[in-house]
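Support reply, case 0932

Customer input (verbatim):
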Amino acid sequence: MSWRFNRLSLFFFSAALLLAQPETAILRGIVTDPSGTRLKNIEVILFEDGKDLSVRKVVTNGAGEFEISFVRPGSYLIKIDANNFETYEADGIAVEAGQVRRVEAHLKPESK
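Our regenerated output:
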């Protein structure tokens, strides 16, 4: 009897996991300069649209890529303020649960 119960429990637990929808999203992207060179060690800051407090800060890896996991559904702004480049801002980035959203940030040289 115990063996049947364990098999049945395992079946229902596995089915529940397959049907479960993630409640958060992932933002992935790259940061490049005008020539297309990917920039490493660049801080990427995520804000909720209309709010001044940042939600998360990450740094690009050696390939100029970043990932921000566990982002709640909503609308966001990404801000990048790197030395020798104009401040980059992208707002209205809509994120839905279960989504992997891609962002490409092309930084422009700072005017002198």
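We compared this against your earlier run and they match. Two observations from our side: The two ends are 79 Å apart (CA to CA). The first strand starts at residue 25 and ends at 32. Please reopen the case if you see a mismatch on your end.
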